[in-house]
Model the fold of this input.
Amino acid sequence: MDEALLSYAITGVIALGVAVFIRQRGWGIALPLIVLGAIVGIAPIGPSAPPNPEVILIVILAPLVFGEAMGSSYLDLRRVSRPVLALAIGLVITATFVVGGVVSAAVAIPISVALALGAILAPTDAVAVSTIAKRASIPRRLVSILEGESLVNDGTGLTALRVAVAATIAGSVTVIEATGLFAVAVSVGLAVGAAFGWGMSLILKRSRDLVAANSLIVIAPFSIYLVAEALEGSGILAVVVAALWVATSQHSDPGWSGRLSGNTVWKHLTFILQVFAFLLIGLELPVSIARLDAAQWNLVVILVPLVLVTLIVTRALFVAVMVLAERARDRRRSRRTGIDQRREGLGRESAILAWAGARGPVSGLAAFSLPLTTTAGEAFPYRDVLLATTFVIIVISLLLALTVAPLARALKVGGDDDAVITRDIDVALARAALDRLDAAIEEAEVDGHPIPQEVVDRLQHDANARLDRARGEQDVSVTREMVTTQMFALARAMVRAEQEELLRLRDEEGLPDSLVRTRLRELDLRQQALGSQG
Done:
């Protein structure tokens, strides 16, 4: 067996074991895995970072972003589309130019190279942000903004990076050429992602073999990325769009049988990819620093605090402008409607939004994607400096991310109280199940094949018990032993009614999709426990 392959395999198993141990204790896996990777990178034995950067971008980043997007909600993102798009597009472009300008002016790095560094570090990271959201009890709307920003801004940042790299390796790119490259990358990425998303949703919906269909979705990110890139589009943006399309389709059909297994597969894959992404950053960190000569090392020492402060200040100012614009919009609505539209806590929430700009694997993998040489065959300028600066800033930003939860508590920014909404959902679902049972009883009597009273009593007992628990009237344990085929069929029909009612509540009454997905998973599990509907 190839020694390098064996070394990667052993290190990967160790990293997964460490990640499992850490996760079971409720800790974040990012920093420990980076430390593990750095130790392995320093050790005389063990693997080093893979030499081909493009392979890393495709093999790890594309499916990792796809998996993160599969766990997101397009409907929740649509409700906060204005701030998401402002941060994911406006802030990324702004930060890219600000960082590029500051770096180029401060240390005399070519502007195209400085812009490449800005494009690498401008996007926040979906993995790091999701960790922040889980650890800090913050409002759902704020979580949706942070997650939506971190998903969409990957495509913006990597597209800006492509333009900056093209300018570096070609010598120069005009503003018109750069704008054209950006427009083509975004439009093609959107089109390819939508086409693949529609096609995959159709296959999943019509397939009777869930194993084969979900296997197709697992390998889809690679094809999506490669097709989009071949057409000069943004591969990452295409991957995000396709994943959001598939996720939305899966959670819009109450009877979609593959939803549960598909979600489980992607949770496992995303976790594994996160482990390897952070491990790779750790592996490359000591190597990239060791490659620096004295002049480059001094440059990194200057760049790290300079870029970090620039990113923080730029984000804070951008969010402040967003808040001012939002308050002005609220005042205009108040004057138009005569109703006070001001939102309490907007300033405190904006402080969390401004501070929660963590970087992570996406920035690291984007740095890996920097070409080794220019078109003239010369080494890509300052590549090792950019890599070392990126990896150090990732580590520092992850350390700073640990302060988001204490900051939220200090500002008294708490999460949403979902108790009332959850109780109302439980009541509505139990009533939907009872209504479906009543309809089934009437249909059976009309057909001349009445349902045995024992079956009716047990199913009514189950639904009424859940209704009582939701109302807080009693807490009883209900046995769900099913004794007849007819009982199974009615129970499945009742669960289906709950699924339909849940989606109706979301679509017509605006329930948060994140809550709906949690409850939909519970209903999927109940439906699975009742067996197939053959």
